[in-house]
Every structure is written in structure tokens, then in C-alpha cells.
Amino acid sequence: MTNNHDIGAVNELPENLEELKRASKGTANWRERLNAVNELGNWDTAPTIKLLQNVLTNDQVFQVREAAYLKLKQLDEDVQMPAKNKGELFKGLNKILLRIKKSLPEGHTFEQFKEKLQKTRLDIYDTYEGDRDAEFDSWLHEIWETLGRK
After folding, report:
1. What is the mean pLDDT of each run of 10 residues along the chain (150 residues)?
2. 92: phi > 0 → left, psi -120 to 50 → alpha, else beta; which?
């Protein structure tokens, strides 16, 4: 482990380590995971580095993985830049979205579809919102329009 006092990293465990651990491993809120990564990056300890490496390897949202990578690089860890996600992040995504669309009444709006997705499959909603960022709404709208009819 490297001492990196010049970047502000502290060589002791954060008081809220358990909270940061839970936040970094959650699946329902990519922004919470991103915040946890940014805070974990301020601590140059084996447990915090291990958590950051876990996020880098396992998180489905590219922005969160990228933040973990940048924090680990600041801590002089030997890590590789994560690849941008390609293809479906959830197996059978179109089937899941079609099921949600068919559960809504005929003539429903895109906003109703989006809200139902968020309520019933927050994991999918949150992951794609984080992954697609500013293009999320247009991407989801395009899928909604092309899904089969009821």
C-alpha cells in the first residue's frame, strides 16, 4: 500500500465504512454507488481499496466503474480502464420491457411506462439510467415505441 498524502488520501479507516460498503454494493441507486466510490477514494487502506476494486470489476454502470478506476489510479493501484458496456446489461431485457408494456392499459403514455418500469424493476431502470446518462429517456422511448403491441 502506498502513502499518498499529497492527494489527500488518509491511511485510516473511515468511520462510516459499513455504510460506504453497503452503498458501493447496492443495485438500486447508481448515484449512491458513485458517491460511495468518491468517498472511498479518499482513504488509502486495504479495505477501501478492496471495495473500490470490487466496484471496478462488478458494477454494471460504466460511470461508477470509471470513477472507481480513477480513484484507484490516484491511490497508485495498478488497474486497467474498464470497458464501456456493449449490448444488453440484463439478459432478456426486451421480454421484461414487453411484459411491463403489456401490463399497462391500451393507449398508455411513455411516462406511465417509464414510471411502471421504475416501480417494478428499479434495478434495470437505475442501471440503464446510469449507463445511458443523458440519452436514457430517448433510448427508453425508442424501445417503448418498438415493443410489440398488446
Report:
1. 48 81 85 93 92 92 93 93 81 92 93 95 91 91 81
2. left
Neighbours of 43 (CB within 10 A): 21
- Other CB atoms within 10 Å distance of the CB of residue 100: 19
The number of residues making up the chain comes to: 150
- Does this model's pTM top 0.70? My answer is yes
Q: How many CB atoms lie within 10 A of CB 74?
A: 15
Query: CA dist 139 to 34, 78, 107, Å?
Result: 22, 35, 20
Q: Could you tell me the three cell numbers for 104? A: 399497462
